[in-house]
Amino acid sequence: MSGAALGLEIVFVFFLALFLLHRYGDFKKQHRLVIIATLLAWYLCFLIVFILPLDVSTTIYNRCKHAVNSSPAESNGSYVTLAPSKQKCFKPWSYIPDGIMPIFWRVVYWTSQFLTWILLPFMQSYARSGGFSITGKIKTALIENAIYYGTYLLIFGAFLIYVAVNPNFNLQWNQLQTIGIAAANTWGLFLLVLLLGYGLVEIPRSHWNGAKRGYLLMKTYFKAAKLMTEKADAEENLEDIMEEVRKVSESIKYNHPLRKCVDTILKKCPTEYQERMGRNMDDYEDFDERQNSYPSEKSLAKLHKQVIYSVQRHRRTQVQWQILLEQAFYLEDVAKNESSATRQFVHTFHSQEPENKIIQYFYTPTVEWYWECLLRPWFYRVLAVVLATFSVIVVWSECTFFSTKPVLSLFAVFIQLAEKTYNYIYIEMACFLTIFFLSICVYSTVFRIRVFNYYYLASHHQTDAYSLLFSGMLFCRLTPPLCLNFLGLTHMDATISHKNTQPTAYTSIMGSMRVLSFVADGFYIYYPMLVVILCIATYFSLGTRCLNLLGFQQFMGDSEMTSDLIDEGKELIRREKRKRQRQEEGENRRREWKERYGNRDDSTRSRAVHTDQKESSFSETNASRPLSKYTRSNGRTERDRIELLQDAEPLDFNADSVNDDPLESDSGR
Q1: pTM for this entry
Q2: Closest alpha carbon to 482 in 453, 510, 449
Q3: Region (Disordered) spans which residues (predicted)?
Q4: Deepest in the core among 32, 296, 548, 567, taking most CB within 10 A?
C-alpha cells in the first residue's frame, strides 16, 4: 500500500475538481486555456487539503521510528526523542516513502504560487479584453497588469536595497525565499480569517434556518424580486448595447477596413439580433473616406468588451430565473403537501427534464413525502447542531492554540492522544475532518460572496471566465495559510509547539519563520484571535445590516423593505405559475384532441387515398378505349371553342380602362 493512497487521492481529487468546474463553467463556450488554468488551480488547492493528513501520519510514524531507534546519547541531537512505545512502530497503511513528499509539496506549492501571482492575473485581463487579435489582447493585458506587477517589484526592490545597505542583515537565498513565502502567507492569512469568521457562523445557521417551515420559501420570494430587477436591468442594458452595435454596423460598410471587427462583434450578439441587423444592412453602399464619423478600433474594442459582458449577463439571468422558478414551485408544493392525508407527494408541474428510472423506482411519491415533510427538517437540525459544535471547537482552538503547557487546543489534544497509541486511522480521520471543515467554511464563502457584477460564481454553467480565474487566484492564496493554520491548531508546526521535533514535509517546504520573528511570534499567533470578533459580528448580522442601510437589499426578517420584496416576489411567482398552468392546459387539450380524433383523421385520410386510387384506375380504363371515340369528342370540343371565340366582341384598345377579363367587360352580358 506504499504510495497507493497518494495515487488514489490524486485521481479522486482531479475528478472532484473537474466536477465542480463543470457545474460552474461552460466547457463548450469558454476558452480552453481558461478552463485548463482554473482546473489546475482548483485541483492543486484541493489536492493540498486531501494529502496533508497523509503527511501528518507519515511524520508521526517517522518520529516514532526515530524515537525507538535512537539511543540516549543521541537524544540531544537534531531531534528530541519521544517516549518510545512498548510496541514496535508499524507503518500506517497510507505511508509515503521518504523523499516523495518534499518533492511533491515543492512542485504543488510553487506551481500554485506561479498561477496566483503571475499567470491568472494576466489571463484575467486577456479574457476580459475586447481586442480582435491575440496580439491586441496580450498588449491590453500587459498594460492593465503593469501597475499590478510594478507595485510588487517596487516593494521587493525597496526591501532588497534596505537589506543591502543595512549591515545587520546577512540574508542568504533560502532566507530570502522564506521571507517571500511569509509575505504571501501573511496576505492570505489576513483574508483567511475574514472568510473563516463568516463561514463558521453562516454555515450552521443556514442549515438551521433551512429546517424552518416557510423560511426557504420566503427567501426564494425575496430572491425572485431581486433577480427580476437584475433581469430587467440586464435586458435593458443588452438593448442599449445592441442599439450601439446596430449604428456601428450601419455606418461601417462592407469595404471598410474595420468591417472585420464589426463582423466579430456581430458574431457575439444573440441570434435574433444578428438576424434583425442583417435585414437592415445595405452592403451596396460604399463608405466615404471624407466622413469623420467612423469609430476607431479602440472604441470598437471597448464595444466588443461591453457586448461580451452584456450577453453573458443576460444569458445568466435568464437561466437563473428559470432555476429559481422551479425551486419556488417545488417549495410551494412542499408547503401544500405537508397537510396531505394520503402522505404522497404531489407535484403541481411535471419535471421538464427526464428523470432517472432507478431514482424514480426508489424515490417514490411516498418516500418523497416522508423525506421532504418529516425527515429533512430534523436532518437539517441535527446537521446544524453538529456543524455548530465544530465551529465552537474551531473558535476555541484558534484562541488557545499558542498555549503548549497546558495544551488547550482541542484538535492538538485529539492528535496527541492518538499519537501515543499510534492509531494512524484515527489520526488521519481527525486531521481530514478538521481541515475539511475549515476548507468548507472558507471555500463556501468564496462561492457565496458576490462583488457587484465584478466577481460572481453562478452554478449551471453560468460563471464567466473572469470570475473563474479570480476564484482560482483566491484558492491558491488561501490554501497555504489555511494548511499552516491547521498545523498550528494540531501543534504539528514547530513554530507553535516550540519543540525540536521532526517537522512535516509541508512545514519544511515553507521554511522556518524565525527569520521574521515579529511574524512568527506575533501575527501568526494573535491575528487568528480576531475570528471571535468576526463570528460575533456575523451572528448579529452586522454586515448585512450595514449593506441594507447603504441601499443594498438584504434578506432581513425585521425589515420593511424585505417584506415588500417578499410580496413582490410572491406576486411574480404567482404570475409565472398561472402562465405555466395555461401552457400545460393548452398542451393537454391538444393531446386529448389528438387522442380523440386522431383515428378519425386517419380513416378520413385513408378514404381519400382510396378515392384517388379509384379515380386513377378509372382514367387508366378510359385510356384503354378505342382512339376513334377520343377523336370525335376532341373534334366537337374544338368546334365549340372556335364558335365561342367568334361570338366574342373585339377589344377596344382606345378605351380609358382595359379589363383583363373580356367576359367581364360588359356587366349586362
Answers
A1: 0.81
A2: 510
A3: 576-669
A4: 548
